[in-house]
Structure formats: structure tokens, C-alpha cells
Design a protein that fits this description.
The protein has helices at 22-30, 41-65, 73-88, 107-117, 133-146, 166-180, 200-204, 209-224, 248-257, 275-291, 307-321; strands spanning 5-12, 93-100, 121-126, 155-158, 190-196, 229-235, 262-267, 296-299. It is α/β, with parallel strands linked by helices. Among the domains are: 19-65, no CATH class; 166-299, Rossmann fold (3-Layer(aba) Sandwich), CATH 3.40.50. The protein has a 4-stranded parallel sheet, sandwiched between helices. Strands 6-5-7-8 form a 4-stranded parallel sheet, with helices on both faces. Helix 1 packs antiparallel against helix 2 and helix 3 (73-88) packs across helix 11 (307-321). The radius of gyration is 20 Å and the shape is globular. 44% of the residues are buried.
Length: 332
């Protein structure tokens, strides 16, 4: 019996594959209208992006140098794609492609790959559990700009967010529990859930990201049932405007001031390890914690291609394919 041909697109941010790629990667990021948006931005966006990228590239180059000279995000995302394709091929003739937003492989490369596969249905699966116009919204907008049927016009589905998905939450709880095995007394432990920050202006315009982050932490905490103290913070602020707080710097200072000596950081908006986890959390903030007297500081590794997370992604794809025809996105 012929199996249904399906395609899956894993949307991710992307990252530089060399020190030399840092500046053009940042330029692409800050040229995104879903990132830089203000009156007359169409005129000023490119020169402003060039200025920010030039200045910030010098600042972050040593971050990437400290984790091997490049971002590992593509490697982890490709592992996820391979594992998910294997999982889906139990029921379908599946092809899983990777579409990075700001560095190779770009969205048009994923489109070509799935067009060659001639998938009957395509699931757009952003690897962002919580929705924001700056992440999922930007990737979907780029898909809509780049996709042209040209004789191939599959039924297209979108996983807008999956922060409430039970299998995803279970995979996070499993990962937290694995990290907790290194601590003796969970009642004397501070668990810090860290999410990428966004400008307050984005939230004030109705973006659901902060609310969904807080709901994710609530659901994970309910499933985990841990006796530790919990905290939420936001990291990776860029520029002088107001962003979500408290920052991770503030949170580390606060738990240290309260006398904590045992900290576990859980990256709650990141599903893959990259510079924000491997350097910012595990090197920069580890150094801060040690200086403040927190001698037992650990980071939960990203979900990456863990079996529970891949099973959760498989369930999301199967749920889309099972939907009635009218529930799919119109025309990609």
C-alpha cells in the first residue's frame, strides 16, 4: 500500500557557521521587519542593521570562540530532523527539512527539498514552543514570501505553538529530573527557568510570548511536583530599550543574596543547545554564580534529539495530518 507523502519543515533561528559568518548572520537578523519595526523603518532598516551587526559582532565573537568557533544549532537541528523523519517513516513517506531564518540553510532551500519529494501535505513546525511574532511569526512570514506553488501546492499545516502539549511537557520534566539526580537535597535548591527576552513593546502590542512562557513553567512545575524553589527570568537582551525582566543577572544576584548555594537553570524557551545556553548560561552566568558564592550551579541540557522530545514532535505532526481538510492553512 502506498504511504502518504508528507513533508515537515523545522523552523529555527539559525546561527553562524564560522567566526566570519557572525556579522552577516546578525545583519540578516536585524534586517528582519519582524525584529526591527518602527516608523520609516523601511528606509532606515538596512543601514541600522549594518551598524548594529558590525558593533555586536565584535562583542559576541568571543562567545562563539568559547564554544568551538561556531553555533552548534544547525547540527542539533539536523539531528532532530533525522530522528523525526525516522519516527514519521513508520507511518508515512516522510521528508523533514530544516529552514533557518537568518543563516543557511534558508527557507527557500527547504522548499526546494520538499518540492523534490513532492509531498502531498506539509507541516510547518517551528521549534519554538511558545509563539512570538519575532520567532514563529517571522519564520511563517518568510515561508509565505518564498513559497510559490509552481505546480506543487501541498495542503499545508502550521503548528503555531506547542507549550501546552502533554508529550512536550513530559519531555521537559524528564530532562529536569535527569538533571535533579545530581543534587542531594531538592528542598534546598533553586530552579531558574530562563527564557529569551523580548522588548516590552512587543508584549504591549499583544504578543502572547510572556504569558505562554509563564504558563509553560506552571504546567512543567505541576507535572514535576518538585520541592525546590522556582524562579522565571529572561536573558539575551540587546540594546537600550526596555525588555522583559527580571534578567538572569538580576535573578542570580537575588538567589545568591538569599543564601542559595545550589542552582539548576532550565532553558524553557530553547529546545536546542546554542550560544545562549552553552555560553551565556553555562559559562557567563556560571562565572557570575561562583563569584557570588553559589558553588553548585548546573544547567539542564537542551532537549535536542532526546527520544521523548522527538516523540512529542511526531505527535504534533500526526495531529496536523489527521485534521479535516478545512483546518489546514490556505495554500501555504
Amino acid at each position: 500500500m502506498l504511504r502518504k507523502k508528507i513533508g515537515v519543515v523545522l523552523f529555527q533561528l539559525g546561527g553562524p557557521d564560522s567566526i566570519e559568518a557572525i556579522e552577516p548572520f546578525l545583519y540578516n537578523l536585524f534586517c528582519d521587519p519582524d525584529i526591527i519595526d518602527f516608523p520609516f523603518a523601511r528606509i532606515a532598516r538596512q543601514p541600522l542593521a549594518r551598524l548594529i551587526a558590525t558593533r555586536r559582532a565584535k562583542y559576541v565573537a568571543h562567545h562563539y570562540a568559547g564554544i568551538g568557533g561556531k553555533s552548534p544549532l544547525l547540527e542539533f537541528t539536523r539531528r532532530q530532523a533525522v530522528a523525526l523523519e525516522r519516527e514519521l517513516n513508520r507511518d508515512f513517506d516522510a521528508r523533514v527539512a530544516v529552514a533557518m531564518r537568518y543563516w543557511h540553510p534558508f527557507t527557500e532551500e527547504a522548499i526546494r527539498e520538499l518540492a523534490m519529494h513532492a509531498a502531498d501535505e506539509v507541516v510547518l513546525l517551528p521549534l519554538y514552543p511558545q509563539y512570538s511574532k519575532t520567532t514563529t511569526g517571522s519564520s511563517v512570514n518568510e515561508w509565505n514570501r518564498r513559497f510559490e506553488p509552481n505546480g506543487w501546492n501541498p495542503r499545508t499545516h502550521l503548528v503555531r505553538e506547542f507549550f501546552e502539549d502533554s508529550a512536550y511537557l513530559d519531555s521537559v520534566v524528564q530532562a529536569v529530573n535527569a538533571s535533579l539526580s545530581h543534587f542531594d537535597d531538592h528542598a534546598d535548591l533553586d530552579i531558574i527557568f530562563s527564557a529569551h527576552s523580548v522588548p516590552l513593546a512587543v508584549i504591549e502590542r499583544g504578543d502572547p510570548y510572556q504569558r505562554q512562557i509563564e504558563r509553560t513553567v506552571d504546567l512543567v512545575w505541576q507535572k514535576g511536583g518538585w520541592s525546590a524553589r522556582r524562579h522565571i527570568c529572561y536573558q539575551s537582551k540587546v540594546g537600550a530599550s526596555k525588555w522583559l525582566r527580571p534578567s538572569m543577572h538580576e535573578t542570580i544576584r537575588n538567589v545568591a543574596a538569599a543564601g542559595s548555594h545550589h542552582v539548576l537553570v532550565v532553558p524553557i524557551s530553547f529546545v536546542s543547545d546554542h550560544v545562549e545556553t552553552l555560553h551565556e548560561i553555562d559559562i557567563e552566568h556560571r562565572g557570575q554564580a561562583l563569584q557570588l558564592g553559589i558553588h553548585d550551579y548546573r544547567m539542564m541540557p537542551g532537549l535536542n534529539d532526546s527520544p521523548g522530545f522527538i516523540a512529542a514532535l511526531g505527535g504534533l505532526v500526526r495531529g496536523c495530518i489527521a485534521k479535516p481538510k478545512y483546518a489546514a492553512m490556505a495554500g501555504g
